[in-house]
Amino acid sequence: MSFSPDRARTLAAVNRRILEAFSRRTVDALRDMLPVRLALPHLEPLLALNVAKEARKDALVIRCSAEALATGSPPGSETVRRLLQETKSVDRAFLERVGAFPVGIVIRYEEVAPVRTQRIERLLFTAYRILDAWRTASGLRTALRASYPQPELERDLYDMLKLYALETNALSRSVRLPAVLTPLRERLARGLNSVMNAAAMQLASDLSRVVYRRGRSEPRAHRGGSYES
User: Fold this and answer.
1) Virtual CA dihedral for 212, 203, 108, 84, nearest 10 degrees?
2) Is the N-terminal amide bond of 35 cis, ω within 30° of 0?
3) Is residue 112 within 8 Å of 157, Cβ to Cβ?
4) Smallest Cα–Cα separation from 73: which of 31, 123, 125?
5) Angstrom distances, CA of residue 83 to CA of 42, 69, 89, 112
6) Are 80 and 121 within 8 A, CB to CB?
7) For 43-102, what is each residue's pLDDT tens digit?
8) Which residue from 44, 58, 167 is spatially nearest to 123, judged by alpha carbons?
9) pTM recorded for the entire structure
């Protein structure tokens, strides 16, 4: 079976749009929270860079799933360990860009690695499952329907978004804010956690409805974070 880079790229692009929508919904909700929104001008550019970072890491995982499918051998624990190491090069590029911002950050791998490992495992096998179904399906939406009943799709989307939120929260606790805003760090972390969990639940529900909506074409992302078909 040959490797299909186009399908892997398409799935990675859809994944990136989902993460971007998730980030937009999170930022919009944080703007309504005092005093968290006082720190938001410092954090919003960082969150945007974080989305790009996570999308790049996810693209590595999705491509690896496609390559494993091409060999007929589902990815295993050694693949997960290798990908975990590869993601650190993406982190280094992210930290170089953050160096130009008025905030500092140190990635605490002892806290991040367990959550990231779970995310890699989940996405690796989810992408493998979808790409496998896509071999005979007419498009991504059809492949998703062939791979999942709607409740399971919604649950898996929610679980993966929650893992993304956990890693983002771990990162937020490492952010060095300007001194005047330092007392807000823990409140910000709690607010971010609450907002991201609520946004994850709603986005997973919205996306699963789009996939299973009758008589529609492939799902596409719209500005503002909404999805239509």
Assistant:
1) 10
2) yes
3) no
4) 125
5) 30, 16, 10, 14
6) yes
7) 777 788 889 999 999 999 999 999 999 999 889 999 999 999 999 999 999 888 876 665
8) 58
9) 0.85
**In whole angstroms, how far apart are CA 31 and each of 45, 171, 191?**
14, 19, 11
* Residue at 57: amino acid letter: K
CA torsion 133→139→145→147, rounded to 10°? 20
94 contacts 139 by C-beta, under 8 angstroms: no
CB 203 within 8 A of CB 25: yes
Whether 140 and 216 have beta carbons less than 8 Å apart is answered as no
Structure tokens at 194: 């609450």
CB atoms within 10 A of CB 78: 8
Q: In angstroms, what CA-CA distances link 135 with 22, 67, 192, 228? A: 29, 13, 39, 24
Neighbour-count burial of 139, counting CB atoms closer than 10 A to its CB (0-12 exposed, 13-18 middle, 19+ buried): middle
